[in-house]
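Private note to self, pasted from the team thread so I don't lose it. Backbone tokens:
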């Protein structure tokens, strides 16, 4: 064992981890699953969801794995009755005010709360009181809000202040009156604002352009590289029936880590914009032509139209487009005038003009 590491035991498995690491980091490295909502490996620790409670030997009560540093000889139990009971209680508490929106929620099928509720939730709720309702916020044209679904994990708040560098979102109020939103009525204008969609573990913050467009299981995921700048961010393109539905980041620690700019995330909408240059058309006797691909269109356009080829003479025969006939006709007098001027200059040299002066012909 090195001096900068310690040895702990998680569910009976010995793990060697660095000093100062949290229990949840050691468990992730060992492949041991611990449920969590507020914890994110790229953000600071908040420990406010309490979903990652685990049992630690000689501790009087369950401890949050995301905020408990490892100690040499520590024994952690993630599946004991104490740990499971604490996790189930937290899940029941989180579901008290959460609406049953799964059938219409864009996060359905990839929702962390949905997944963990299957493993740690109760079949029937014991809560019979009225659920709270939170008005939605207008955060701009890119982020859709359903704040009644928010579980106050504060991932979006921490992302703005720690990664984007703009504290645009925050929490106001306390208890069940706590609200996540902008402090004043304004939009979220950060160039990285779309990442709050990814860090949100529930369906409170979703993509507004993608809203109600497709389900996660209907799309095929393709790897791609962003082409809008020299960063070369890695991304996943989600396609359904040959149409790009959305773009999400692909993790690459050497390039973009787990983040993606709004330009790379939402520019796919330009593929289907009504003012986008249409595909080339060629052939057909009705004058309308038939749709073709760009390779065929470029090949057909290289020779130029037949009328231009006839006016250009040998240039079109060699495959290079020649100038239009009207342009050739207009340029003939100018060419003759230029030849005459050159002949006069050779036989009647004049004194040099000052630099920057224009000739009488305007050249």
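Design output:
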């Amino acid at each position: 064992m090195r001096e900068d590491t310690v040895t702990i035991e998680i569910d009976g498995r010995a793990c060697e981890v660095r000093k100062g690491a949290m229990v949840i980091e050691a468990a992730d490295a060992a492949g041991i699953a611990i449920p969590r909502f507020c914890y994110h490996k790229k953000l600071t620790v908040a420990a406010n969801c309490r979903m990652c409670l685990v049992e630690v030997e000689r501790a009087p009560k369950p401890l949050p794995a995301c905020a408990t540093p490892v100690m040499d000889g520590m024994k952690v139990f993630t599946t004991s009755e104490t740990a499971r009971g604490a996790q189930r209680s937290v899940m029941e508490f989180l579901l008290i005010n959460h609406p049953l929106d799964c059938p219409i929620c864009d996060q359905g099928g990839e929702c962390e709360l949905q997944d963990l509720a299957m493993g740690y939730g109760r079949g029937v709720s014991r809560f019979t009181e009225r659920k709270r309702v939170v008005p939605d916020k207008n955060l701009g044209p890119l982020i859709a809000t359903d704040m009644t679904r928010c579980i106050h994990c504060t991932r979006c708040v921490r992302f703005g202040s720690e990664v984007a560098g703009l504290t645009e979102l925050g929490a106001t109020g306390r208890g069940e009156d706590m609200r996540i939103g902008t402090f004043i009525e304004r939009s979220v204008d950060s160039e990285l604002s779309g990442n709050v969609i990814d860090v949100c573990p529930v369906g409170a913050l979703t993509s507004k352009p993608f809203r109600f467009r497709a389900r996660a299981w209907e799309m095929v995921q393709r790897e791609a590289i962003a082409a809008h700048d020299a960063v070369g961010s890695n991304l996943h393109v989600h396609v359904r029936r040959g149409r790009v539905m959305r773009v999400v980041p692909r993790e690459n620690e050497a390039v973009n880590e787990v983040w993606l700019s709004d330009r790379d995330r939402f520019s796919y909408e330009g593929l289907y914009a009504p003012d986008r240059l249409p595909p080339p058309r060629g052939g057909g006797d009705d004058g309308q032509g038939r749709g073709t691909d760009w390779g065929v269109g470029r090949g057909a356009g290289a020779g130029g139209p037949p009328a231009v080829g006839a006016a250009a003479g040998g240039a079109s025969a060699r495959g290079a487009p020649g100038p239009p006939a009207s342009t050739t006709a207009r340029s003939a007098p100018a060419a003759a005038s230029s030849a005459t001027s050159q002949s006069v200059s050779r036989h009647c040299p004049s004194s040099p003009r000052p630099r920057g002066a224009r000739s009488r012909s305007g050249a």
